[in-house]
């Protein structure tokens, strides 16, 4: 094999509404529970991959600078094995997340890499196989293979753990407003945080049981186009995840004072009749789930307290695709 054609893929980030927080198999990245997310239009990663026999090592350029990244080389090793090739790869990746947003994510990164690398290696994977492959890079990436609402079914092994899209009615009206609280690097990565919780939180078994119930309720709310239940269940599931972190040993949490302030603003807006709910991932940034018609009122309120430049609006985004 000489140098192959370069393939470029774009994949969008996703925000989990029912969270993935713990693995039952760390090598294969099999989750303890199924999760459900919304792929977002506003934030994405574009990645180009070319395999070349002449290269001594994998070469990875992120946003223009050369990076050493063992996780990426390990992931490419999986692709090489599947495709039965040995060539190293040149990878050029660019995150399209508004600068200083602090929302860059391994989900869009590995979904784009899975699509571009598998194509460049001569593989023609269907979406299920792509989702399984992306999962090996980062769990949440298996959901970014699809657009809109997406469920990652936990499965019991490599073959059965993958994502699939959830049908939503055409008039299911949803938007997400991201409030940037901090752009600092996470003190505890998602990977380390969830591992600690699985190993030490006395509440972990309750989380697993309860999250299965939350997932059923959320899917039912989606099928009934019931936005209030959808928001309520999402918010509660996020709070349970953050409570797990505070119950770990040693305990930790991702919230900052401004996260709490924003949560209170959302609660106040809700008490005034604006249907809006919050969720937070492994960081202090608050994401508000709302209907499109309420975007302006919420953006105005958050901008008053935090500044307009901290408030970013997103909607449902597309599946990963080649460009
Ligand atoms: C998720 N989060 O479902 C969860 C909920 C944040 C909170 O960042 O170890 O980067 O690479 O599989 O996918 C998931 O962490 O972790 C995550 P790995 P990943 O989106």
UniProtKB/TrEMBL annotation:
Listed InterPro entries: GHMP_kinase_C_sf, Mev_decarb, Mev_diP_decarb, MVD-like_N, Mvd1_C, Ribosomal_Su5_D2-typ_SF, Ribsml_uS5_D2-typ_fold_subgr
SUPFAM superfamilies: GHMP Kinase, C-terminal domain, Ribosomal protein S5 domain 2-like
GO CC terms of this entry: cytosol
GO biological process: isopentenyl diphosphate biosynthetic process, mevalonate pathway
Nucleotide-binding in keyword set: yes
Gene3D superfamilies in the record: 3.30.230.10, GHMP kinase, C-terminal domain
E.C. number(s) listed in UniProt: 4.1.1.33
Protein name listed in UniProt: diphosphomevalonate decarboxylase
Diphosphomevalonate decarboxylase-like N-terminal domain segment(s): 11-163
Keywords: ATP-binding, Lipid biosynthesis, Lipid metabolism, Lyase, Nucleotide-binding
Record-linked Pfam families: MDD_C (PF18376), MVD-like_N (PF22700)
Keyword check for Nucleotide-binding: yes
Family, similarity comment: Belongs to the diphosphomevalonate decarboxylase family.
Top enzyme category: lyase
GO molecular function: ATP binding; diphosphomevalonate decarboxylase activity
UniProt domain Mvd1 C-terminal: residue ranges: 177-309
Lineage: Bacteria, Bacillati, Bacillota, Bacilli, Lactobacillales
């Amino acid at each position: 094999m000489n140098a192959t054609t370069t393939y470029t893929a774009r994949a969008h980030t996703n925000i989990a509404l029912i969270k993935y927080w713990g693995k039952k198999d760390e090598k294969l990245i099999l989750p303890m529970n199924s999760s459900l997310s919304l792929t977002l239009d506003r934030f994405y990663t574009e990645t180009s991959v070319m395999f070349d026999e002449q290269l001594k090592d994998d070469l990875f350029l992120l946003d223009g600078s050369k990076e050493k990244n063992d996780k990426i080389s390990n992931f490419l090793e999986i692709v090489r094995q599947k495709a039965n090739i040995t060539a190293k790869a040149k990878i050029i990746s660019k995150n399209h997340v508004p600068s200083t947003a602090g929302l860059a994510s391994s989900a869009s990164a590995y979904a784009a890499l899975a699509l571009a690398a598998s194509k460049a290696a001569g593989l023609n994977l269907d979406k299920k196989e792509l989702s399984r492959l992306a999962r090996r890079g980062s769990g949440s990436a298996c959901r970014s293979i699809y657009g809109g609402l997406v469920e990652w079914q936990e499965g019991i092994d490599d073959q059965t753990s993958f994502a699939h899209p959830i049908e939503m009615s055409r008039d299911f009206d949803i938007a997400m407003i991201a409030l940037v609280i901090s752009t600092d690097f996470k003190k505890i990565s998602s990977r380390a945080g969830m591992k600690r919780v699985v190993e030490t939180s006395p509440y972990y078994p309750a989380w697993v049981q309860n999250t299965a119930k939350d997932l059923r309720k959320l899917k039912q709310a989606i099928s009934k186009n019931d936005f209030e239940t959808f928001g309520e269940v999402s918010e509660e599931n996020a709070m349970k995840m953050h409570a797990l972190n505070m119950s770990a040993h040693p305990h930790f949490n991702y919230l900052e004072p401004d996260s709490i302030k924003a949560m209170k603003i959302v609660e106040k807006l809700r008490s005034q009749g604006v249907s809006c709910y919050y969720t937070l991932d492994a960081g202090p940034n608050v994401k508000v789930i709302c209907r499109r018609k309420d975007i302006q009122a919420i953006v105005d309120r958050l901008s008053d307290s935090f500044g307009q430049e901290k408030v970013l609006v997103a909607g449902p985004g597309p599946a990963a695709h080649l460009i």
